[in-house]
Amino acid sequence: MKINIINKSKHKLPEYKTALAAGMDLRANLDEPITLRSLERKIIPTGLYLEIPPGYEGQIRARSGLALKHGIGCPNSPGTIDADYRGELGVILVNWSKDDFVINDGDRVAQLVISKHETVEWVEVSELNNTSRGNGGYGSSGIN
């Protein structure tokens, strides 16, 4: 798949780090470091602008190493980039740890996954087909 991209950052384009990776690392594009204090949220600019094809979305996801080692994540993960959005890609990060965390220019702050999706056309009906689960909700399967 080919996607048009404008790179206004100081960094190379996102890339897959291994042959079977689903996500590409996104880098912070900063003029000066940003400090995320405990429980603080900020949008981190990337300098990237995408033209995602119809029927696809971009998903911004946390990097597992940042989450495990530093408590840094994406509070709306995955964050959705719609195919009709043309603004700069920003990454919302939160610091769930008790320690300050400094983000420097060029740091890998999140992953971008491009994913296919369907567009739904609702069909209103008066009842739904029955299943063995029925309306059983949270915890209804009996498995702990």
TrEMBL record:
<comment type="function">
    <text>This enzyme is involved in nucleotide metabolism: it produces dUMP, the immediate precursor of thymidine nucleotides and it decreases the intracellular concentration of dUTP so that uracil cannot be incorporated into DNA.</text>
</comment>
<keyword id="KW-0546">Nucleotide metabolism</keyword>
<dbReference type="Pfam" id="PF00692">
    <property type="entry name" value="dUTPase"/>
</dbReference>
<feature type="binding site">
    <location>
        <begin position="80"/>
        <end position="82"/>
    </location>
    <ligand>
        <name>substrate</name>
    </ligand>
</feature>
<feature type="domain" description="dUTPase-like">
    <location>
        <begin position="11"/>
        <end position="142"/>
    </location>
</feature>
<dbReference type="GO" id="GO:0000287">
    <property type="term" value="F:magnesium ion binding"/>
</dbReference>
<dbReference type="InterPro" id="IPR029054">
    <property type="entry name" value="dUTPase-like"/>
</dbReference>
<dbReference type="GO" id="GO:0006226">
    <property type="term" value="P:dUMP biosynthetic process"/>
</dbReference>
<comment type="similarity">
    <text>Belongs to the dUTPase family.</text>
</comment>
<feature type="binding site">
    <location>
        <begin position="63"/>
        <end position="65"/>
    </location>
    <ligand>
        <name>substrate</name>
    </ligand>
</feature>
<dbReference type="InterPro" id="IPR033704">
    <property type="entry name" value="dUTPase_trimeric"/>
</dbReference>
<protein>
    <recommendedName>
        <fullName>Deoxyuridine 5'-triphosphate nucleotidohydrolase</fullName>
        <ecNumber>3.6.1.23</ecNumber>
    </recommendedName>
</protein>
<keyword id="KW-0460">Magnesium</keyword>
<comment type="pathway">
    <text>Pyrimidine metabolism; dUMP biosynthesis; dUMP from dCTP (dUTP route): step 2/2.</text>
</comment>
<dbReference type="InterPro" id="IPR036157">
    <property type="entry name" value="dUTPase-like_sf"/>
</dbReference>
<keyword id="KW-0378">Hydrolase</keyword>
<dbReference type="InterPro" id="IPR008181">
    <property type="entry name" value="dUTPase"/>
</dbReference>
<dbReference type="GO" id="GO:0046081">
    <property type="term" value="P:dUTP catabolic process"/>
</dbReference>
<dbReference type="GO" id="GO:0004170">
    <property type="term" value="F:dUTP diphosphatase activity"/>
</dbReference>
<keyword id="KW-0479">Metal-binding</keyword>
<feature type="binding site">
    <location>
        <position position="76"/>
    </location>
    <ligand>
        <name>substrate</name>
    </ligand>
</feature>
